[in-house]
Fold this sequence. Notes:
heterodimer, A: about 240 residues, alpha+beta, five-stranded antiparallel beta sheet, four-stranded antiparallel beta sheet, 8 helices, 9 strands, B: about 180 residues, mainly alpha
Amino acid sequence: MNYQDKELQQRLAAEYVLGTLQGLARRRFQRLLADDLDLQQAVKVWERRLSPLALGLPNEAVPEAIWTSIRERIGLSAQQPQAQMMLVNAQTLKRLRTWRWAAMGNAAVAAGLVVFIVFGALKNAIHRQPITDLAVLSSAQAEPVWIVRQRDVSTLELSGLSHIVVPAGRVLELWAIPAHGAPVSLGLLRISAHDQAQVSLVTLSLQRLKQAKTLAISVEPIGGSSTGAPTGEVRYSGKVVI
Amino acid sequence: MAIDLAVLMSQVSQGDQRAFEALYRDTSGRLYALVLRIVRRRELADEVLQEAFVKVWHAADSYQPERGAVHHWLSTIVRRTAIDRLRKNTGELVVEPMSDWESLADMKPGPAEQALRDADSRRLSRCMDDLDEHQKHSIALAFFQGMTHRELAQHLDTPLGTVKAWVRRGLDRLRSCLRESAS
């Protein structure tokens, strides 16, 4: 077989990608592929051509054990190093303090905050209860730190993805920010062990939550902000996904 | 649903473990569905998904945004791993009845909205429609079920040579159609 023949190369690459090239022919092709740039290119093009087919499949529930094995195989720690998260540099803090709340959507981008929205990402994996994922809040370094879920009409649950350190004599307050308008408080975080937290919702907060486009957490004095608006630094923020 | 996979990928390539987990959580369901259809056995599917994501972690820095969306890149790695795995265990074919077997074979890219928005998907969909039924059917079975020529022949109850020709002509036609629509 003349592997320099362009047409043949195309056909072999196509059947290799599709998977119908098999046995000896497949092994021979793989050997050639290792050094042949033209063949590699042909394979890439075919992969690109056919891969959209895979996009239409519905999600399948993935056993959690698979993730555990992946993590073990590549040597990921179960917990992130703790120090990393709180290293907010002075520059960023300054910018955050001068953050104009009303224009938060744009300000978030301007301040270099990359907002992560993990749609239903952890829904299947962690909880089986019918609870709703609301948002993933990220730090100023764009690291996802909190997953916010609504457990029921009166409780929000926040799961810390890393170790949360609250300065002594301070509390964390959760804010809802509508598309147009100032942030309104949803309540204070009651942080328990293992970096879990809850916020109890009153009727007023529920309405505020429904209109929220963005959620954010600020550091406030004990008892929460006394002005009705955030007074301390904004540590985390993220868009509401539903 | 607006997770920015490209941003996640760039963080994964810098060794960001949390970004990797977020990527896994967001994409593994659909990729697992793909693997299950190809290898048709759960324990094998589990191994393939695992192996593929280990590759993703190590090869993240070779992802090039201009080569296409993250989903494409991931599904390519996953599919390649699945097919390689299947072809290694030569000869043994476990055909388990699948209720959606026929509908899968008829499948065009993407009931998923996202797929429809995607230009590559739309082009592929149009070109798949251009193929005759036999060609379309055999290509879809090979893609989604990981079938070899022989398995296709058996499944479609058609001589091997005929099935090979369907696949080859189908792919040829797909290629010229995709080329035309790209230019």
